Amino acid sequence: MAKEKQKYYTVWVGRKPGVYLSWEDCKAQIHQFEGAVYKSFSSLNQAKEAFARDSATFIGKTKGPNHSSDLSKHSALPEENSLCVDGAWNTKTNAMEYQGVLFPDGERAFHAGPFLTGTNNIAEFLGIVHALTYCKEHPEITLIYSDSQTAITWVKNKMAKTKIATTDINLPIIAIVRRAENWLVNNSYATKIKKWQTKEWGENPADFGRK
């Protein structure tokens, strides 16, 4: 995955209004604070400038080339008691792995790999399917987060549209993908799958931190 740029957060209305350097610090000021007003910026100077001005100038608007084009008011926070999944693929070794981490506890629920071959999309796909099987055994968890829209679509379509070549070395991982597809076809689930909003919430808790 591409490396996410640093985000800075301006809190106009919250427990302690100000400028914050991480989503975690920002969340502490606005989580369950009625009427909270806040926004992410792509530079510290932008965030400080915004804090000195009326929030209405920035919320829902773009102020020219010096302001991030993807700014938006946080419409929601990550739901707690959920399961976050992420995959990692080493472009040098071709090794692949994935894991699931409980949110907000931060406890690892499962980990698989590294496998000798694979792709990032396959890792993300297998991570979601593994999470679905985990939630079958832990029905108190009703929501899975992934930051891969491609993998979410593959899961919903019950098919991994991977272009990985079928070779002797790739056969084991292709077999695992086929088993995952068969599980999706033959099992029903009520667990919701949602996109982790990295730009608003910060890095996926299941991220391997190797970017």
From TrEMBL:
Residue stretches making up the RNase H type-1 domain: 77-211
Catalytic activity: Endonucleolytic cleavage to 5'-phosphomonoester
InterPro entries listed in its UniProt record: Ribosomal_bL9/RNase_H1_N (IPR009027), RNase_H (IPR050092), RNase_H1_N (IPR011320), RNase_H1_N_sf (IPR037056), RNase_H_bac (IPR017290), RNaseH-like_sf (IPR012337), RNaseH_domain (IPR002156), RNaseH_sf (IPR036397)
Source superkingdom: Bacteria
Enzyme class per UniProt: hydrolase
Keywords of this entry: Cytoplasm, Endonuclease, Hydrolase, Magnesium, Metal-binding, Nuclease
Enzyme Commission code(s) on record: 3.1.26.4
Described purpose of this protein according to its UniProt entry: Endonuclease that specifically degrades the RNA of RNA-DNA hybrids.
Family note: Belongs to the RNase H family.
Protein known as: Ribonuclease H
Species the sequence originates in: Pedobacter panaciterrae
